[in-house]
Amino acid sequence: MVETTQLDKVDVVKAAGRIDSHTSPELKEAFDGLLDQSRYNLVFDMSEIEFLSSSGVWVLLETQKRCRRRNRGDLVIASANENIQKTLDLAGLMHFMKMYEDVDSAAGSF
Amino acid sequence: MPRETFDASFENLARICKFVTNAAREAGFSEAEVYDVELATNEACTNIIEHGYGDNSDGKIECSVEVDAEVITVVLRDWGTPFDASDVPDKDFEVPLQELGPRGAGLRLMRGTMDEVEFERLPGDENRVTMKKNR
After folding, report:
1. pLDDT < 70: residue spans in chain A
2. How do the domains of chain A map onto residue ranges?
3. What is the 3-state secondary structure (H, E, C) of B20-68?
4. Which of A82, A87, A92 sits opposite B39 (nearest CB)?
């Protein structure tokens, strides 16, 4: 289940539960839908995500790459729990991706 | 030793992981350790489904879990194309993820969360992944 909310300059994508190879295509579709509408300032609200696999990590990397093209935007993370942060760290993403405690501070970073 | 056979499909990843995490929780592993075991199991099964079986939708994964006072051991058996783990640098977390590709990223997560990860090719076209985590 993926929801997107359009704020002023930023879009918030929120997913819940488990992001694995079965569910990550739906997440990718949500991100791609925004990118195709030229919405490049994205916040991924992970507050209700319990599990993130490498396929989810891959979706984030690909989405961030498209956002950042020609400096037009970014994908940032909000409210990732400790387990998710560890996954991102092991995957080497902590150096690439900005993390915020909540959606407000993530949205405010743009 | 709890053992169960699953159809090798992405749809079953959550069920296979649940089977393993139930055993880990019952044995008193911490939630952080349970998550590590779940992540490694998920990545190993994803590799089997995606690369081992590919388009073969009839593939099976047999999963067994053994727990003693010190260690949890997850064993996954499949009968698909074997995985050559030597293609992926061992514990080399300096290599950018983009260069590893999706399969290498999964292996990195397996090695990063477990204390031992071993791949074997056995008679009868069997592949076996054995993953151990100490308490």
Report:
1. none
2. 2-108
3. HHHHHHHCCCCHHHHHHHHHHHHHHHHHHHHHHHCCCCCCEEEEEEEEC
4. A87
